[in-house]
Recover the amino acids of this structure.
């Protein structure tokens, strides 16, 4: 089956839209790519605190060497990123060490709809179910059909292959099932390229096995696309500041519980929101609280600690250890975002100890205490899945095991044993301008489990259910309702 080679020919679709200052089809010489790659390897080997946490040094050296040898000719930025950097960073098994395209690419692609594989799929284990189709006028495969192969590659092999391009904490793959479920067309296009036709093996809603060819998704013509962009921008302008805050955090009431949704620990004026919410729940004499952090990718650890104080019934710490292997970004400061300021911060917050590492003593020593005012003492249910990451997984570890708290849902994407983060500047490669995130501290959670590699495991597992997905039902919320109604809470 012939491939369109989208990775090589963006002007075919966007020749009228290419920025004067940026050419997505520009090819960088083999020498320039090797220079970027060698610089990245040097920085990771000398500054990354957990480069060999899950991948032994000899194996990591093999992957570094393999990536370098794969640079045999000139490449575009997109090719270099997905063919070389993506599999390299995936082998580190650090969810905070990932690559992203250059700022020039991000500006170029903003608000553009690009050609891709047409089907949106819900992916879990070895299952791929159709939940959407970009080809609105050519729906050969209906929602609810189960894909068994694409272009001759069986679904289990396909998922496993795509995971080799996606980062994760340890071996907690749940985050990548959700990434593929959110935007399968994006990942399939970047990993496999674009084809004129896709051969699809599937089982329809009646259980009948079928095969068909479907066309790739082609974006609307420029006039239509411009009109859609204008309509989208108009809708965005109408959204109020309060509505945007509601997307980050909200508090609603059901007949059985209060539902607090926290989609980030970064933005949203969270401390004020938490104060108001717990005061309100105290006045309302709320007995059951559901905290939904299924879309919370993390953020500020202090904000997650602040929420924990309203729930924990005893004092707690965040880290058993938190350390960097260097207290300076030198000699790579100019390649790292906010390098000068980060160097100052590292100098003042770290202290070299006998093990030769630079420890962030605050997180290792500081003990936090529960809030007395408006502390919530009722039944608490925390909803989790693969997108529960970073500071959210720290929060889960801090509250898990308390008698009145149950984690409900799926394994978190963030590591239970710990992760690398706290400071996460970007490395910008000088030639391609591609960026790679560099976590500077390795953090091992306090009261961590002895075996590393998993996410935080829920107390009540509720996985994907294809019938509920098609009906738009929230099976995790339904499970909480069932527990409360059956009085199964402790």
């Amino acid at each position: 089956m012939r491939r369109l080679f989208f990775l090589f020919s963006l002007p075919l679709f966007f020749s009228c839209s290419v920025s004067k200052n940026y050419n997505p089809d520009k090819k960088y010489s083999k020498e320039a790519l090797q220079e970027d790659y060698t610089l990245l390897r040097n920085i990771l080997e000398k500054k990354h605190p957990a480069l060999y946490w899950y991948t032994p040094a000899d194996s990591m050296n093999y992957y570094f060497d393999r990536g370098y040898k794969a640079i045999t000719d000139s490449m575009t930025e997109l090719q270099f990123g997905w063919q070389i950097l993506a599999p390299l960073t995936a082998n580190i098994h650090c969810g905070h060490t990932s690559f992203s395209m250059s700022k020039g690419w991000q500006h170029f692609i903003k608000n553009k709809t690009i050609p891709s594989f047409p089907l949106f799929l819900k992916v879990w284990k070895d299952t791929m179910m159709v939940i959407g189709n970009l080809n609105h006028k050519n729906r050969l495969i209906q929602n609810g059909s189960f894909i068994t192969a694409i272009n001759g590659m069986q679904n289990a092999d396909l998922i496993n292959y795509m995971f080799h391009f996606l980062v994760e904490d340890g071996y907690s793959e749940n985050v990548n099932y959700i990434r593929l479920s959110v935007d399968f067309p994006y990942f399939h296009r970047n990993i496999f390229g674009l084809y004129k036709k896709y051969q699809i093996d599937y089982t329809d809603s009646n259980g009948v096995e079928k095969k068909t060819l479907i066309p790739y998704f082609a974006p609307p013509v420029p006039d239509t696309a411009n009109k859609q962009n204008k309509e989208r921008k108009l809708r965005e302008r109408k959204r109020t500041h309060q509505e945007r805050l509601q997307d980050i955090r909200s508090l609603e009431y059901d007949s059985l519980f209060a539902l607090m949704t926290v989609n980030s620990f970064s933005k949203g004026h969270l401390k004020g929101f938490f104060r108001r919410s717990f005061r309100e729940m105290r006045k309302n004499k709320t007995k059951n609280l559901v905290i939904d952090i299924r879309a919370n990718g993390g953020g500020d650890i202090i904000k997650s600690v602040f929420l924990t104080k309203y729930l924990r019934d005893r004092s707690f710490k965040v880290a058993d250890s938190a350390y960097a292997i260097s207290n300076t970004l030198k000699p790579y400061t100019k390649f790292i975002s906010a390098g000068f300021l980060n160097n100052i911060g590292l100098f003042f917050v770290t202290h070299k100890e006998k093990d030769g590492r630079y420890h962030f003593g605050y997180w290792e020593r500081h003990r936090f205490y529960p809030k007395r005012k408006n502390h919530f003492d009722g039944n608490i249910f925390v909803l989790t899945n693969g997108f529960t990451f970073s500071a959210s997984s720290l929060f889960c570890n801090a509250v898990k095991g308390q008698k009145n708290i149950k984690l409900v849902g799926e394994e978190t994407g963030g590591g239970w044993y710990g992760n690398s983060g706290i400071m996460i500047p970007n490395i910008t490669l000088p030639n391609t301008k591609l960026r790679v995130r560099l976590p500077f501290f390795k953090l091992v959670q306090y009261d961590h489990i002895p075996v590393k590699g998993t996410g935080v495991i829920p107390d009540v597992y509720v996985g994907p259910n294809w019938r509920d997905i098609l009906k738009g039902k929230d099976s995790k919320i339904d499970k909480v309702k069932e527990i409360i109604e059956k009085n199964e809470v402790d």
